[in-house]
Design goal:
Layout lengths: L2 E7 L3 H15 L4 E4 L4 H7 L5 H9 L2 E6 L14 H12 L3 E7 L19 E7 L11 E4 L5 E4 L6 H16 L4 E6 L5 H17 L4 E6 H10 L6 E4 L1 H12 L11 E3 L6 E3 L18 H13 L4 H16 L13 H12 L1
Bound molecules: adenosine-5'-triphosphate and magnesium ion.
Length: about 350
């Protein structure tokens, strides 16, 4: 039986994951769903955010779906044992190097007058961020004291050919199922790793993906273009640091944090890691008002990318779209629905 490991975590995580559970039970009763404790909850129970046992469960599942981790009550825990450290460890151990962050504006939310923020109608970008390399992990790094007493902090941006090629391959594959266009962003004008990035992407494109159009863009220009005319993008592939920034920027043009899923994929055949991009939202936790759609859409991505059930994923996506078209709105979308009511709205549309 295919296996989904659910790690609800902290704050609103358990509330939104309960809705994923209900959707999974209705839609894919043949997928075995198990649940384990993780994040701050695990720190409180076991003194660590990610136990070896839960890590082993994650590595042997077909997909792992996270709710959210962290909260103010763990802010003073030792750095290496903070809930967020458990998330980084999970990503590294699972080897999920390609972070897929869709920035999609549903038509029903395109009129944002009730949202008190600006959205971009028709926006549909898939950002592919390299997740396990680059300046966040490169060695050497540190803070040292110089002979004159000053301090010097330093990090290293490193990418190898294979690290670049495997994430670019994910981007080209995704583009083929979309609008067939890849934009690759780096800073090849000022960074050696950027020169290599552009070279590797260019070669891979010529070799295996000549049917997809490829555009190179300097990362600062990409930031500008995302604000100026965001609908020009289809798939945007970039490194860990630029991807962190560009994906957060793009997500804000979509409506609400409560709507945005993500996937992190490793090599084929290994489990993928799925999570809403929102945090644990301590301000609304326990109130039953969080929007569960980011978590439900993360499950939709799991169906597509880890379980090979694109057809069922399409059905779920259509149900979410119809629920929104029918006016289903939680507080973050300007409405008054509870978490459970939004789950019900999706279930009703699943038929
Ligand atoms: P983290 O550091 O964990 O990423 P954060 O400080 O970025 O957390 P979030 O926890 O994501 O913040 O919450 C930011 C704001 O968005 C909060 O006001 C929160 O209530 C709201 N929010 C986040 N997720 C949801 C959701 N699913 N439904 C409704 N509101 C949400
Ligand atoms: Mg955040």
């Amino acid at each position: 039986m295919p296996k989904l490991l659910l790690l609800p975590g902290d704050g609103i995580g358990p509330e939104v994951c309960a809705e994923v559970r209900r959707v999974a039970a209705a839609l894919t009763p043949d997928i075995e769903v198990t649940e384990a404790i993780y994040g701050g909850a695990s720190y409180d129970a076991h003194g660590t955010p990610l136990t070896d046992e839960v890590l082993a469960m994650a590595l042997s599942a077909d997909a792992v779906l996270l709710g959210a981790v962290g909260g103010p009550q763990w802010a003073n825990a030792p750095r290496a044992l903070r809930p967020e450290a458990g998330l980084l460890k999970l990503r590294v151990e699972m080897g999920v190097f390609a972070n897929l962050r869709p920035a999609l504006c549903f038509d029903a939310l395109a009129d944002a007058s009730s949202l008190k923020r600006e959205v971009v109608a028709g926006l549909d970008i898939m950002i592919v961020r390299e997740l396990t390399g680059g300046v966040y992990f490169g060695q050497p790094r540190g803070i040292e004291t110089l002979p004159d007493g000053q301090k010097r902090g330093f990090d290293t941006q490193v990418y190898t050919t294979s690290e670049i090629e495997r994430v670019a391959r994910v981007a080209f594959e995704l583009a083929r199922g979309r609008r067939n266009h890849v934009t690759s962003a780096e800073k090849s004008n000022v960074m050696e790793s950027g020169v290599l990035w552009r070279e590797v992407v260019t070669e891979l494109h010529a070799r295996d993906y000549a049917d997809v159009t490829l555009e190179h863009m300097l990362a600062d220009n990409a930031a500008m273009q995302l604000v100026r005319r965001p609908t020009q993008f289809d798939v945007l592939v970039t490194d860990n640091l630029f991807g962190d920034i560009l994906s957060d920027a793009a997500s804000q043009a979509t409506g609400s944090l409560g709507m945005l899923p993500s996937a992190a994929l490793g090599i084929k055949g290994k489990p993928g890691l799925y999570e809403p991009i929102h945090g644990s939202a301590p301000d609304i936790a326990g109130k039953g008002v969080a929007n569960p759609l980011a978590a439900i859409l993360s499950f939709e991505m799991a169906l597509r990318w880890s379980f090979g059930r694109g057809d069922i994923a399409d059905r779920l996506f259509a149900a979410v779209t119809r629920a929104l078209d029918g006016g289903a709105r939680t507080g973050d979308l300007g409405g008054t629905m509870t978490t459970v009511a939004m789950g019900n709205a999706v279930l009703a549309e699943l038929g």
